[in-house]
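Q: Convert this sequence to C-alpha cells.
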Amino acid sequence: MKKKILLICFTLILSSIFTVSIIFYNMIQHNYVESILANANSNIRLIQLILSENKHTDKYLFKLSQSLAQKTGFRVTFIRLDGIPLADSNDNSILFENFQSIPGFQMANKNIVSHSVEKHPATKIPEIKIFTKLPLYNKKSTILMLSKKLNFLEDFRKKFFLTIFTGIFISGVLSIFLSIYFTTWATKPITQLTNAVREISQGNFYSKILLHSHDELEELSETFYHMNQKIQNLLQDIQNKVRNLQNILDNLSEGIVVLDLGGSLILMNQFTKSEFEIIHSSDDFFSYSNFSFCHKEVRQSLLRKQTFEFKKKLGKKIYKLHNHFIEENKQMILVIQNITELEQNEELRREFISNASHELKTPLTIISGFIETIKLGHVQEKAQLSRILDIIELETKRLNKLVNNLLHLSHLEKNISQGDKKIHRLSLFKIIPQIKDLYQPLLEEKSIILDMNIADNLLQSPISEEFLYIVLGNLLENAIKYSKPQSKIILSSEIRNSNFYLKLQDFGCGIPEEEQEKIFQRFYRVDPSRNSKIKGNGLGLSIVKKMIENVNGNISVESIFGKGSTFFISIPISQRS
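A:
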C-alpha cells in the first residue's frame, strides 16, 4: 500500500512538473515567435514603403536585401511569383532553389501573410520564415521572405530543460522524502488495522483495534472492534458447544464416525480411536486399514445413499454397524457398536438354560421314574423299595443342592456391586484346619495328603468364616476330585501389602489351556461327559468367583494339562495383627 502511494505521489508530482514545464516552454516559444512576427511586420511595412517609392528597385534588389538585412536583423529574400529567387541578403546559393511548392510561398501568392518555424536541415536550429506579397513601383509584384534563426529559443530550450530536469530531480528527491513521511503518517492507522486483522485471522480475538485518528478510519476501527467482540463471543459460544458435543461423543460407549459423501473423514470420537487403535490421522476414511472390514458396505452406501445395518466379526470381537444420512449437510453418520459382550452373554444365557435344564432334568427324571415304578406296583420286596427310596432321597438332595447353588449364585450376582461391608475378625490357623477335617474322609478315600502352610494370623477383613468354608471348601473338593490317588495337595497362605493371598495346588489331571478361561462359567465342566465318574454340576467355581469379586478380590488359575492345577486368590484386608 505504501509503495503504491509513493509511486502515485511521485508520478503525480513528476507529471505535474513536466506538464507545467511544457506549457511554460510553449508559452515562452509562442510569445517569442509573436514578438519576432511583430518585428517582422514592422520591417515588412518599411520594405513595402521603400519598394513602392523607388522605380528602379528591381534592378538592385541584391544590394537592397543586404541593406535591409543589416537594418532589420532578418535574412531578406526576394522571390518571383513563379518561385524563383531574385536576391538574397546572405548568399546567392538560394538562387538555385524554387519555392513554388512551399505552402508559405503559395499562401503569400494569394496575398496571405504566412509563417512557419522549422529546424534548419544542416544546423538543426529552429528557423522562422515569413512570406508576404509586396507590390513594386512598376506595378509588378514580388514575394518577400524574411527568415531568422531562433538561436535564442534554442539556447533557452537547452537551459530551460536543464533547469527543469534539475528541478525535477531536486523536487523528486524532496517529494520522495515528503511522500514517505506523509504516507507513513497516513497509512499508520491502516497498518494498525491490517496487523489487528492478521491477529484475528490467526485466532487472536483479544487484539485491540482502537485508533485515535479523528477521521473515518477511527470510526471504522470502532465498528471493527465491536464486530470483533461479537465474533469473539459467538466463537466462544460455538467452541463451548463443540467442546460439550465432543465430550459427549468421546464418552459414548460406541463409535461415531462422520463422513461426507466423498468418503472424507469429518469427525471420529475417542471410542473409535481407542477401539480400533487409530494412531495416524487421515482425511480419507478408506485409507484406514483398521476399517477394511466395512469398506465395501460403506462405499456402496455412500454411492447409493442407502442406510444399512449388519454385524461383523473381527478377530474375537463382534461389531454391529448402522448408518444415518444428514441430507442438509450431505453427510453420513456411521455408528459402530462393540456387541461382543452382549453376544457372549446371550450365548452364556443359552448355554445356562440348556445346562440348567439338563442338570435339573436328570434328577427329576430319576425321581419321576422310580415313583412311577412304585405306583405301578412293580416293587414287591422291602429291600428293593428301600434301595429305591435311598436313590430318590439322594437325587432329591442333589436337586436341592443344585437349586440352592443357583439361588446362592443369583444372590451373589445381584449384590456383586455392593459387597459385604461388615468387617470380620477371624483366625486362619484355627479355621483352615477345621475345613480340612470336613474333607478328611474324601482325602483318605483317595489316599491324598493335604500339605498346609498356614501362618498364625488374625485377620480383620470383609471375609467371614462362612466365606472361607464355601470358597476354600469348593476349591479343596475340586482338587480332591481331579487329583490322582496317592498324590498330594498343597495349601498355603500369607498376608502381604494389606492383601490376603491363598494358594491351592494339586497334581491331578490339569486343565487344557483353551479351557482355562471357561472354568468359572456356570455349569461348565472340563470333562464333556455328563455321565462321568466325577460328580458335580459346574456351579462351584462360579460361586467362588462371584464371592471373591464381591469383596474386591481376584482369583486366577495356572494349569498344565496332565500335571495339575494351581489356584491363586488375593483379597484386600483392613489390617493384620
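The first strand starts at residue 75 and ends at 79.
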